[in-house]
Amino acid sequence: MRIRATVAAVSGALALSALVVPAAQATDGPSYSKDDVLAAVEAARDAASGDTARSTFATQDTGTPYALDLSFSNVKVNSGKPIVAGISNQVTVPVTYTVTHAADIDLNAPDFVLDVEIYRGTYDAPVNILYGDDWPVCADTSATTATCKGTIDVYPAFELTNADATTWKAIGYAIDFNDEDLDDDVNWDNIGYVDQDALATTKLQRYSKLTVNASPEPVKKGRTITVTGKLTRANWETHSYKGYTNQSVKLQFRKKGTTTYTTLKTIKTNSTGNLSTTVTASTDGYFRYYFTGTSTTPAVKAAGDFVDVQ
C-alpha cells in the first residue's frame, strides 16, 4: 500500500518524489527499490543545497551531486486524454516519453533510475503527486536516445480529494548512483542527478453517471411524457456518487428504426442533480439525457429509454 509522507518536510522539485511511497517495483527494473530512491532523492537535494538536517543518510555523507546529462521530451500522459477516476477502483494509465542522454549513461544499469510523475500545485510546493507503482521500461533507439513506457497509478479510495480534479503537470527525474552504497557513507560527488519540470499537462476528472426514465410506457399519441433522470459524479472525499448541481443537460430523442439522436431541449439539474421535463408523445422512439462535460467531469450519455406511442 502507498503511505503518504509529510509534504512540509520536503521542498522543491525533489519533494515530488518524496511525497508518497509506491507499492511495488518492476521485476526487471533497477536494483534499488523506490523507497530507497525516494530517500536518496531527498538526500541528494539536501547535499546539493548544503543542508543535511533532513538527510536520512549518514552524517558522514559528503559531496554534491553532479548534473546528469539527460533530458526528457515527447511526454504523453494517457495518450493525451484526461484521467478519469471513480470512487474506489485503481486506475492505471500509460506514460510514454523520449529520453536523450550522454553516450556513457546506461539507462538499464541496475544502479540507474528514472521516472516521470505528475503533480498539482507549484514546482516548489506540490500539493499532491501521482506516479507509477513500477519503474518504467526503456528501449534504446540509439547510443544517446531511448523510448520509455511507464504508468500513472491512481488510488481514489485514499489519495485523492475533490480539489484534485484539475490540471496536473508532469515532471521527470533521473539518478545515476554509480555503485554508491546507500547503506554506507555516501559520497554525493559520485552521484548524478537531474530533474525536468513542465514536461506535459493532463487533466484528472471525477467519473460521472447519468440515468433516464421516460413514462408512461406505453403512451397515447398527443399525451404528455415525463422524462426524469439524475446526473452524479464521484466524490473523492465521501467515496460516493453525489448529484452534480446546476448543470446543463440535453434531452435527446431517436426515432425507432434510426441511429441518430436529435436534441429536443436543454435543461439544468436541480440542487440534488435530478432532471425532469415533459414532451408530447408523437412517435415510437428512445429518450436519453446527454451531459457534455466540464473541465472537472467527463461527458456522459444515458442509455436510451424506449417509449411505445400508440
Structure write-up:
- By secondary structure, the chain is mainly beta.
- The chain folds into 2 domains: 3-205, Immunoglobulin-like (Sandwich), CATH 2.60.40; 208-307, SOR catalytic domain (Immunoglobulin-like).
- Helix content is 8%, strand content 44%.
- The chain is built from 3 helices and 22 strands.
- It has helices at 15-18, 34-49, 156-159; strands at residues 3-4, 20-21, 66-67, 70-77, 83-85, 91-101, 112-121, 126-130, 137-140, 145-154, 167-176, 192-196, 201-206, 208-215, 224-235, 240-243, 248-255, 262-268, 274-280, 285-291, 300-301, 305-307.
- The strands form 5 sheets. Strands 3, 5, 7, 8, 11, 12 and 13 form a 7-stranded mixed β-sheet that branches.
- A hairpin with a 6-residue loop joins β17 and β18 (262-268).
- It starts with a strand and ends with a strand.
